[in-house]
Design brief:
The complex is a heterodimer of chains A (312) and B (331). With 312 residues, chain A is an all-alpha fold. Helix content of chain A is 68%, strand content 0%. Chain A is built from 14 helices and no strands. The radius of gyration of chain A is 26 Å and the shape is flat. By secondary structure, chain B is mainly alpha-helical. Chain B is 70% helix and 3% strand. Chain B has 14 helices and two strands, in the order H-E-E-H-H-H-H-H-H-H-H-H-H-H-H-H. Chain B has a two-stranded antiparallel ribbon with strand order 1-2. In chain B, strand 1 and strand 2 form a beta hairpin. The longest helix of chain B is centred in the N-terminal third of the chain and has 40 residues. The chains are: A mainly alpha (312), B mainly alpha (331). At the A-B interface, helix 2, helix 3, helix 5, helix 6 and helix 7 of A face helix 1, helix 3, helix 4, helix 5 and helix 6 of B.
Chain lengths: 312, 331
């Protein structure tokens, strides 16, 4: 879990050039330059062809569901497969809303994912800041606990969690999905790793000398500095909550679903003979919110993953 | 509150403001970590620990706690052929997804780790599937891997091949489910590996090139050994994720719990079937703990294997690989 964290700050250079070795000197200057250049060479057509092929593979299923979702079910049979959208997307989408409470599902998922995101980001920043920059008894021990619990698949606790929800009469309500997602060990770890480097200790001392309260220091020093990491954590938390299926399936009712349980119900609705165009239109509708997020913040997603922001 | 004030002004000398400030300074750090620990204890730790308690009783979804039965639930799960069937299916799907995924992700990362044009576009393009939720992935792939209709059936027909019974036969269903996992995660893992590749100091490649090592040689002897920590990380997360696969096999045939003959029932699906359709919380909890132990075990094994592979082919680049490896390992 820690393996990818340090990549951005890896040493620029491991070896010092030193004096040229015997072997180096034997090489003609021109040849050396040519070989050196080869290591940096712009890649050839093959690279782009392979990347394009991979991109087509990545995009095809999504594009194809939009194509079929905008046509009629029998078009799934076409050989070669249909590649251009038809005129029926809105009609199919309307059928989606008639078949299952899809709009309710979308709204519920916005509320659930939004609430979980706010909660995770807030509590993670608060705890992460404390672990990164404040001194208190037992800090290291507690931090080790956080790291150790990060690897625990909390999904395995669903049975007692379900019993808890039943006892509190929360089954069927949104808080049954929200509350179990309110904090993650990963979030705390992630914010701590970010803040430990980004806020100079002197800044916090200075704030204290100037008479700032602890809360004031958190608000005016830590929060502004934490903003970029908070955004990345928010992005990934929202996505994880939006795409979750098992837990909402257990605690939400079909009448008050999340977007995922609604889509699953839609897919099962047709029995042996599902209306494929409608089901795929539903799949596209369920993806649109994250697709917008991807268009707006795709760069941050990529950067977040590459900085080791997410734990699979 | 009773912390010693030796060597400092006596308490009475402090103004009220100073006292408040001292209290603030001493207790705020705890206050800031407390919400996390309290909530996490309630929603993360307690359920897992309590699962152990439930697993030791006869425990029915509706009737609640019954007699204490000791390890009987564990015995019945471990002697249930359906459990071992689910175990085999999970391992099979995991291998069919983890291996191709790792190989392709490494290849894509290597392609991206060049001076390509449109870097941002390509990086984003491979991440596209990641934003599609597993439910949507399954719904879409259900149409693609359809025995009679859809692109693959059409393609097979074109070549005069028999239709494949994706939802009925063991291996085809595993391949279809593994494809869903691969489609969603390969690009994501490629980005992780790319990040690791970019951390390899460029002058290592440069000196290897000057010494006459070709591209392939540089890849095997420099890149692979130097991204080992990330490879291990990817393998372990893929393992933990792969052993808990639920959504794809559940929805691949949503009327059943992993196929009419349980031909693609995974362990979590087995757990789900025990807990909800069959209402046996005791055995389901035992399954959860068994799965937990399996995850820990397999995580350790993947770690050992990846390490062994590394030791076998690292010799040429050992000296330069060590510092980066060490640096990536900590932090």
């Amino acid at each position: 879990m820690t393996a990818t964290i340090s990549t951005p700050k890896s040493p620029k250079s491991q070896k010092s050039p030193g004096s040229p070795s015997l072997e180096d000197r034997r090489l003609v200057d021109a040849e050396r330059r040519a070989r050196r250049k080869r290591a940096y060479e712009r890649p050839g057509v093959l690279t782009y062809a392979l990347l394009a092929a991979f991109f087509l593979g990545s995009a095809f299923p999504l594009w194809w569901s939009f194509v079929i979702g905008s046509r009629q079910s029998s078009d799934t049979n076409l050989v070669p497969p249909a590649v251009l959208p038809g005129p029926n997307f809105l009609a199919n989408a309307a059928k989606v809303f008639d078949t299952v409470p899809f709009l309710q599902g979308l709204l519920n998922s916005v509320v659930i994912s939004g609430a979980i995101t706010v909660s995770v980001v807030f509590f993670s920043t608060l705890a992460g800041y404390s672990f990164a920059k404040l001194r208190f008894r037992g800090r290291n021990g507690l931090m080790v606990t956080v790291i150790a619990t990060m690897a625990i698949p909390t999904q395995l606790g669903i049975i007692p969690l379900f019993m808890l929800m039943a006892e509190w009469h929360w089954v069927g309500t949104l808080q049954a999905v929200i509350v179990p997602g309110m904090v993650t060990a990963f979030g705390v770890f992630f914010m701590r790793q970010y803040l430990v480097d980004v806020i100079p200790d002197e800044l916090i001392e200075a704030a204290r000398v100037d008479g700032a309260s602890m809360w004031g220091t958190f608000r005016h020093v830590a929060l502004p500095a934490a903003r970029p990491a908070m955004a990345v954590l928010a992005l990934f938390t929202f996505m994880a909550a939006w795409t979750d299926y098992l837990w909402p399936l257990l605690v939400l009712s079909p009448r008050n679903p999340s977007v995922q349980t609604a889509l699953a119900a839609l897919s099962a609705a047709g029995g042996q003979n599902p209306d494929n165009a409608m089901v795929l239109a539903g799949a596209v509708l369920s993806v649109i919110p994250l697709l917008i997020l991807f268009v707006v913040a795709g760069k941050q997603l990529v950067a977040g993953i590459m900085q080791g922001a997410v734990k699979g | 509150m009773t912390s010693s004030t030796l060597g400092r002004p006596a308490r009475s000398d402090l103004t009220f403001r100073q006292k408040v400030s001292r209290f603030d300074y001493a207790f705020s750090p705890f206050l800031y970590v407390a919400p996390f620990f309290i909530l996490f204890a309630a929603i993360g730790v307690f359920p897992i620990v309590y699962t152990m308690n439930v697993s030791l009783y006869d425990w029915h979804l509706l009737k609640g706690q019954g007699d204490f039965v000791g390890l009987e639930n564990y015995v019945s799960v471990l002697s249930d052929p359906f459990f071992w069937n689910a175990f085999g299916n999970t391992v099979s799907i995991f291998l069919l997804s983890a291996i191709p995924q790792l190989v392709i992700a490494t290849g894509i990362a290597a392609l991206l780790d060049q001076a390509i044009r449109g870097k941002t576009f390509w990086r984003m393009s491979i991440l596209l599937p990641y934003i599609v939720a597993p439910v949507a992935v399954t719904v879409i792939f259900l149409q693609i891997f359809n025995q009679y209709r859809g692109p693959i059936a059409g393609l097979l027909e074109l070549f005069g091949l028999d239709p494949i019974r994706w939802a009925f036969d063991v291996l085809p269903s595993h391949i279809a489910i593994a494809s869903m996992v691969n489609w969603r995660w390969t690009g994501y893992n490629a980005l992780l590996l790319l990040a690791a590749m970019q951390a390899v100091p460029r002058d290592v490649y440069e000196s290897a090139a000057i010494d006459g090592a070709n591209k392939l040689r540089r890849f095997w002897s420099i890149t692979i050994p130097m991204i080992r920590p990330t490879l291990i990380f990817v393998v372990i997360t893929a393992t933990i994720g792969g052993l808990q696969i639920f959504t794809e096999p559940k929805l691949f045939d949503s009327r059943t719990n992993g196929g009419g003959d349980r031909q693609f029932q995974t362990i979590v699906l087995y757990l789900y079937e025990l807990a909800f359709p069959r209402r046996d919380f005791g055995q389901a909890s035992a399954t959860a703990w068994i799965l937990f132990l399996i995850i820990v075990l397999v995580g350790l094994i993947s770690f050992a294997i990846t390490r062994a592979i590394r030791t076998a082919d690292v010799k040429p680049a050992r000296s330069s690989a060590a510092p980066v490896g060490a640096q990536q390992g900590e932090s």
